Amino acid sequence: MKRVMAGVFAAAVSFVPSFAYAQNPMMNAVKAQHDMAKGVLLKTAEKIPDNLYAWQPTPEVRTFAQLIGHVADASSMICGTAAGEKPAQMSAEKTMTTKAQLTKALADALAYCDKVIAGMDDTKGMETTKFFAGGMSTRAMVVAFNTTHNYEHYGNLVTYMRLNKIVPPSSEGQ
Questions:
Q1: What pTM does this model have?
Q2: For 117-132, what is each residue's pLDDT tens digit?
């Protein structure tokens, strides 16, 4: 009898993660996309050598440092909008120049987004909020917009890395 009960308990426990995931499929998908973008961005910020943070391909475009700072600033602001909060302005793009400063700012901003996403189930994600890009939007869409924005600038960073003979994190091992 003990073996049967242990087997039933083990089977029940094995279904808990999939059941928990099924409870909030939309926000779990949003989180998965955010986590992928976060991973490559943080690896990129670490991988770029200190001396290249001031590099830019042409005078008209942002430096590595400005791109990392822009992603940090925008992530903080956009995730704050999704949460209905106004986070402190970092101004990383305009005020920070070192790898150490910018890597920390990026990590802090993305950790703030982690916190916002973790506090949002599908019901909360479907609530509407005012958003600068398109008027009213669902909170989930605002977070998804942030991920899209992050990937857009990761694409810029990939080009910058390739121009400097650096293999981007998403291409490592290929």
A1: 0.86
A2: 999 999 999 999 999 8
